[in-house]
Amino acid sequence: MTNQSTRKILLLNVRADFPPEIGLSDRHPLVRACRRTSWYAEAGDVIASPAPIDREFLDHVGGTLGFDAGTISVVLRDRVLTDEVILAPDFVAELRLAIADHPNWRIMACYVTEGVAELAERLGIGCDGSAFAAERGSDLLNRKGHFRRLAAGIGMPLAAGSVVQSPTRLARAIEQHMPATGAVIVKQHNAGGGLGNVVLAADDLGPLPGARETRRIGPDVAETAEKLWTELSQEHDPGVVVEVYHPAARHMFYFEYLVADSGVPRFVNSGTIRLVREGTAADERLSWVGLELPADLPPHSLAQALTHATRFAVLAADIGYRGYLNIDAIVTASGELIFNEVNARWGGGLVLHTVASRLLGEDYADHSVASSLRDVRPVPLARVVAAAREHGLDLTPERREGVVVLACEPTQTEALECLLVAPSVSRVRELETALRTVVEAL
Amino acid sequence: MTNQSTRKILLLNVRADFPPEIGLSDRHPLVRACRRTSWYAEAGDVIASPAPIDREFLDHVGGTLGFDAGTISVVLRDRVLTDEVILAPDFVAELRLAIADHPNWRIMACYVTEGVAELAERLGIGCDGSAFAAERGSDLLNRKGHFRRLAAGIGMPLAAGSVVQSPTRLARAIEQHMPATGAVIVKQHNAGGGLGNVVLAADDLGPLPGARETRRIGPDVAETAEKLWTELSQEHDPGVVVEVYHPAARHMFYFEYLVADSGVPRFVNSGTIRLVREGTAADERLSWVGLELPADLPPHSLAQALTHATRFAVLAADIGYRGYLNIDAIVTASGELIFNEVNARWGGGLVLHTVASRLLGEDYADHSVASSLRDVRPVPLARVVAAAREHGLDLTPERREGVVVLACEPTQTEALECLLVAPSVSRVRELETALRTVVEAL
């Protein structure tokens, strides 16, 4: 029995760890997000999902990666998989049934929450770091104020900033940190995807990365601070973080680690965040085009950043965290390295990494670039897959370059997300043009 | 008083930590080695040296780096600065006098030995990690067998190998590890610069990196093992390490860290080791041409290697080590990452890094390559410096490319070592050609 491979329960508790006011927003369509994460599945796995993942899409995954997706079962609940949902007796019973025919299982969850630890125990399967998770341990890493403390303790470079506990202190911190660049970022302690962050700027800077909103600060700082405090400080955890904001970063990137049960962090992947400004001057917005793996940094900056990030990952492991860890940083226009935050969950680039690894091998990043496009015109999956194949654009292990449709909405109301892999960035851009041309013609 | 800068005693205890049988060899000329390390000096520093460093050379250092070398004093002993030498009352008294006119001092030593810790205490100046050094703590890192244990404990990739305690075990280990590549490397626990390593090969492989000697193994493994045991096992520390040897490494490189008193390892520099085969087929030897900073590795391999190396540096810091730490690794012909050893001392690349940093800024490696040549025809220092300047080949902060003579023997019996800095490897090679042409004409 012990000789049999370990299968996994892929627990898509996406958004389950967000505070309620953010978790319920629909800015990140759930169906697309769940389809996207189904790329982690391997033969025999069970996917527990808060949104339907249809057979057509699973067959697309299996067909691309070369396994029989018919062996995958889906346990569906039509709501976010909060701890309450995953510990409900009917959910546990359904999972128990789904894993009954195989001896070795583990859970791979987006967030290793208290509920995930409890669920693993009820199912009688292992869950690394569950004692830590049962205490909501990852709050120590994710909470903005805690991150600053832990990072400062090991000498990680941070933006000049303050952790403040009152509107008065907030006003003072804004005045203190505004002069450096003419902008500060005010961060809610517990939030995700920049949704809890607001930038205050002396001039009209337009939309900026890392924040849900950019506001021009008026003459009355106290009033601004009062208003922001009401919006961002959370009742269960009062306080916010204020930092000097560096608007024109030269590099925006992340490193992702996996702390497995050995307690030794393993580097998984790195990537650059690609942003473009879109819309008219009056209605300009910043679009997250996608990610590009590996992170493209010059040698000195890369080595410095990786050393600091690894030191942090070791600290997280020592504290007791097990699971994926994403560490976000920038190099400013003047060449300064600054760490922004960590997220103790799987990152946006892990899907790209997983598909590229499974098709081209673990070392794909030694000779390939894996890039995502999140804004491809929505067309039915079958048609775009067929068209890509017809034009020789589909990614295969033999060709070592091409396109994979990573995610789509079945109703074509949201853009497609595609992965492009090629030996160089310039070749990726050529594939992008070719793909868009093919999709436009559909 | 506390407002005054900290000056340093640059303690050139080169070779002081080698076992006697190696420490007394003259394979690495001491005069050149000491001149080379004088690049660490800054205005007002004291250099304690086992070989003369003349004013002409110090003026060359000061002139290149832009400070008055007349402020540097040299405390000279004409022998290796062993602990016995540096703790002799006359040496301590001379140092005490040399540092009397300034309040703040620290020691920068090649090896932080027991004697260095004791010397610092006698002089009443700080020495990071001295309690650890007083117990010969760095033996835990440098000793080949200990390195394998510590590395294995944190999941660092090592060559398949064994730590053996008898000639019989050595024979068995040779037979066990020979088939993988047709060669094994047998390592003395305590040695430096590959001088304690012998490669055994099934075929005639010629000279190989990382070892003092390559031997073709005969049919009688037991006899070979007996002989090697007698040569390599040390009376004070019996045993050797046997590892699969990977002859044709795709990349040979190191990472250097500094663990300062904060206990957080800081990345300092990385480099590739450049080797060429020289001589006739009958008398072929492998020459260490020089180092090239930063290490040139593809992205996946680099991130994996840096993550492991940083994890090791954190372990060394946790154990209590303070000082420079060099971690050596290769990527084999088949793409496998393997760590070879660590050296708890300053590395060969630190001089290159120091000169490049002081002339071009700490982030020079983001846009420059710093490369050393150790085989330039010996000519008098003044003449080569003048000729380089005349041909516009001298490295200046403004030009951001050029040549610096790093080390030479005053008697011109040994080759010059030169640093070449340029924006790219190809430009470095052009400078190399230009330099050799200029030197040939002298």
Automatic annotation (TrEMBL), chains A, B:
TM spans (from-to): none
Protein name: ATP-grasp domain-containing protein
Annotated PROSITE patterns: ATP_GRASP
Keyword Nucleotide-binding in record: yes
InterPro entries cross-referenced by the UniProt entry: ATP-grasp, PreAtp-grasp
GO molecular-function terms, A-Z: ATP binding; metal ion binding
Species assigned in the record: Embleya hyalina
Keyword vocabulary terms for this entry: ATP-binding, Nucleotide-binding
Keyword Nucleotide-binding: yes
Residue intervals of the ATP-grasp domain: 148-373
